[in-house]
Amino acid sequence: MSTHRGDAAPHIGTLASGATGTIADVSGVRVGHCTLDAGDVQTGVTVVMPHARDLFREKVPASACVINGFGKSIGLMQLEELGVLETPIALTNTFGVGALAQAQIRAAIAANPQIGRGLPTVNPLVFECNDGYLNDIQALAVTEEHYLAACSAVSADFARGSIGAGRGMSSFDLKGGIGTASRAVRTAGTQYTVGALVLANFGRLPMLTIDGVSLGRELAARAASSRATQEPEKGSIIMLIATDAPLDSRQLRRVSMRAAAGLARTGSVYGHGSGDISMAFSTAYTMAHDAPIHALPPLLADSQLDPLFQASADCVEQAILDALWRASTVQGRDGHVRQALREAAPDFANLLEGGART
């Protein structure tokens, strides 16, 4: 059951948040943004760094799950095969993927000049959503400069909502964007943290469900004259899960799959035109690039993963709400507007308390 205090979004579920309620509660994780806000250009870049060192040299275990594959991400094939991250995770719009992949390659070569020569090539990892309703995506506005700016801005204290890669994103016919959450869990006698960051760009308004309440039906009734609420789902979401629990890539894939449960709770049915991708990584250990043997710490047994599964689902659901809650109204391409949730529903708290639960 949700609780609602002051200006904070309602807390979803029974697990407690971490200290800040963001993915940065997982030790070492930092997030940076670069936002492009210039008339018809409403887009940007967001990067997530698992640690502050050279990821090519000190890789972290990771895995991904493609829930619905209507997307143009890069790097997923090698991530699935090798189970490691070797660049920061980059988020942007669909047509910015190539520019960011090249930026990641250049940055990795600058740090390791033998990449592609005496060393293997590097696997760039870029995820995308289509922000073309608000952003002139054909302008190809995202460049290497914006990736580097986002990397330079990484911090444990970062903005959410209509920022970075989330600037032009839409959710439930409202303003979407960047959202985050964290949960503290205890398993096998040890306390761990799970955090999530989402790039939310999915959903039709009547689908919107918050903490089991079909809030979108009421909002759609108020906007009954809008054709947009009748169009099919064509959006996308990227869900990044971080944890300090010692897991291998196989276990991390299992954790990433539970993001789909949190996504479904908000009303998504993973529509035909939706690119829904989740990825999980662990900061519990690193794997040196040139080590002949990787000495892993003791890993959690599979039978101890249920608390992490619950936290993954809860974090994603909370992070989607956070994206809606933190977003501001944006006007972009051809005068298109996406209204912020709290402007569309100034009586949000009353609607939530009085709404019918699904």
Automatic annotation (TrEMBL):
<keyword id="KW-0645">Protease</keyword>
<protein>
    <submittedName>
        <fullName>Beta-peptidyl aminopeptidase BapA</fullName>
        <ecNumber>3.4.11.25</ecNumber>
    </submittedName>
</protein>
<comment type="similarity">
    <text>Belongs to the peptidase S58 family.</text>
</comment>
<dbReference type="Pfam" id="PF03576">
    <property type="entry name" value="Peptidase_S58"/>
</dbReference>
<dbReference type="InterPro" id="IPR016117">
    <property type="entry name" value="ArgJ-like_dom_sf"/>
</dbReference>
<dbReference type="GO" id="GO:0004177">
    <property type="term" value="F:aminopeptidase activity"/>
</dbReference>
<keyword id="KW-0031">Aminopeptidase</keyword>
<keyword id="KW-0378">Hydrolase</keyword>
<dbReference type="InterPro" id="IPR005321">
    <property type="entry name" value="Peptidase_S58_DmpA"/>
</dbReference>
